[in-house]
Amino acid sequence: MAVKASIITNGLKYSLATGNWGDQKKAASAKAGVSQVLNRYTYASTLSHLRRTNTPVGRDGKLAKPRQLHNSHWGLVCPAETPEGQACGLVKNLSLMCYVSVGSDASPIIDFMTQRNMQLLEEYDQNQNPDATKVFVNGVWVGVHSNAQQLVTVVQELRRNGTLSYEMSLI
User: Fold this and answer.
1) Mean pLDDT, to the nearest integer, of 97-105?
2) Of 10, 48, 74, 111, whose CA is between 20 and 30 Å from 128?
3) CB 132 within 8 Å of CB 149
4) Which residues are in the RNA polymerase Rpb2 domain (predicted)?
5) For residue 118, which of 140, 153, 142 has the smallest C-alpha distance?
6) Alpha-carbon gap, residue 46 to 61, rounded angstroms
7) By C-alpha distance, which of 123, 106, 118 is closest to 152?
8) What's the rounded Cα separation, in Å, for the pair 160 and 169?
């Protein structure tokens, strides 16, 4: 069984043009607002449009929590740039210095940390070293280190001279 290429092409054109993704004949069940036309009024408005996030909650709801910023948004979401009216707080923009990076493979970093005396989580005994500092890679707890300040100094130096990626962060 073959599918005509024109059917797929026309479906994609329709979805990108209208923003309604799904079957044209069943427009009621289609997802609306998935794609938008890029705003090109000014360079600043184009950048703002590309860095916009949309919370999928009904606009007429009176719930305050989805409209407020969470503490974990600090430095990631701009607290000032949001539209007025019903979409206030539901449409958020990334902050000025925030950017989204693609994930990287964790195994080279874990090997690097292991060579610098990081103890893997599987081998860690809390009774032996209760004051060890936790080490997270890509948000996953992978091990502990007994001298965190030394590890931070080494990682900062290698990041500054370009051996490690500049996207690697220390907290």
Assistant:
1) 81
2) 111
3) no
4) 36-100, 135-170
5) 142
6) 29
7) 118
8) 12
Buried b (16+ CB within 10 A) or exposed e, 16-45: eeeebbbeeeeeeebeeeeeeeeeeeeeee
Q: Which fold has domain 107-160?
A: Hypothetical Protein Ta0175; Chain: A, domain 2 (3.90.1070)
SS (H, E, C) 51-117: CEEECCCCCCCCCCHHHCCCHHHCCCECCCCCCCHHHCCCEEEECCCCCCCCCCCCHHHHHHHHHCC
pLDDT single digits (tens) 84-99: 888 888 889 999 888 8
* Chain position carrying tokens 């590309």: 50
Residue type, 28: A
Q: Tokens in use for 5? A: 């290429």
* Cα distances (Å, whole numbers) of residue 99 to 45, 95, 166: 17, 8, 13
Could you state, in order of their start, the residue ranges of all structural domains in the chain? 1-34, 38-100, 107-160
